[in-house]
Amino acid sequence: MDFELRRAREKLEKEQKERKEKAKLKLNRERKAKEEAKSQREAIEAAQRSRRLDAAEAQLKADQQMQENALAGRGIMFYRVLEAVPYLGIGDKIKLPPSCFTELSDQGAFDKGPMYFHLSVVHQEVSSDTHATDDENLRNTHSGVLEFTADEGSVALPPHVWHNLFPGETQKTSLIEVRYVWLPKGTYAKLQPERIGFSDLPNHKAILETGLRQHATLSQGDILTVNYGELAYKLQVLELKPSSSISVLETDIEVDIVGPDSASERTDQHVLNPLVLGNSESGIVGEGNYMYYKFSIDNDTLGRIATGDARIEVKIEAETDGGDTDLYISRHPLIFPTRHQHEWSSHDIGSKTLILSSRDEKLGAGTYSVGVYGFKGTSKFNISASVQDDYKRKVGQQAVSSSSPMEMDTVECRNCKHYIPSRTIALHEAYCSRHNIVCRHAGCGVVLRVEEAKNHVHCDKCGQAFQQGEMEKHMKVFHEPLHCACGIVLEKEQMVSNPVEWLSMRFIDLICIF
User: Fold this and answer.
1) How far apart are CA 441 and CA 297, in angstroms?
2) Is 491 helix (H, G, I), strand (E, B) or coil?
């Protein structure tokens, strides 16, 4: 009996314990469900609150943007996001699609004078390993408009605008924010060349003014490229007044040009090294590069040259066998002579000399620039400019010419055409016919040794005579077609001798009328 009671009591206690555990588990589940529901409700409320805040912030930004656009555009509200594409143009004028013309015209933008636009890069989503740089904050500039012929959804940018928005980058697709703005007329600009040499250009401010005629705007931080012949100078815009972005159309601007930073100086920059008459300077130039020197001719020296008593001799002595140079000279204001712009030149292989004498009509008192161009390989050289006395040479020439060969008993050699005393003509002709050959090329007639004749050749195009080893360089220098940026193709001699004839016609197409 006691055993049955004990078993019943144990069973009851077990059932009560199980019921308590189930009740406890139920309470825990209900508590967790309530907590999860509360968390979900709070998350939903937070998301809704965040969306409301984002919407309010976006609306606020949109309102501010509209106000800024209206203020910046003086009542004209124009804003587009377009895909940037490059085009070969001059200056800072962009090309917009035709739909922009309609939108601007409907708002009367054309009645308010020249149109200006603020351009900025739309930063797209990038990978986590790409970090932003300080340059991104500078990726904005201003421009004018050239025409409305771009494809819909795109904006065509000239090199000046492209390089200021994407410095050192070649992007395939880029979105540009284009916004119409009003700009004040500029009164002051401070510019800094990236390298030395720009201030040495004659009338460099006039050259800068000519370059700015192709621009409608300037923005602080922009890099402005000024071309002078084959040379291109980059100037950074440091300061502008009355604002950080100005219009340069129909206004007088005071321009200050400060010197470049010393840290920016490089060995490949064009610098005029002084060349003292009578002294020699050593140098080294790589293939395709220039080294420049300058010397001066005063009035006294010019007087001696004009009377034929002296001449200027510019000489290059090569120190290396593997390289070769070309020599170019110009009188200022052409300060940096090049292959296509110069007044005197020498293309001899190895050492070479240029003589400036009274027969040169371009010779005058002033400063002259000497350009040493690396034609092949790396060349070490010594260069000198000196005044050579011509008095003794003139006297010797006059003494030789005082007796005419016809006054003596002479006979013309049938081979070399020289006048030889009649008593030795037979011996001379026998020797001359065995050892000498006369060049039969029209207009040449030079007498050559038999062993030298095989190296004597004439150019098929111009007829000049050269050694066989010089012909390859002659063809490359004088007869290789040169492609100008304007599209014309000329040989070097045509481009150098009379550039005005064709340049005056080509420049008309390059100058924008807007």
Assistant:
1) 40
2) coil
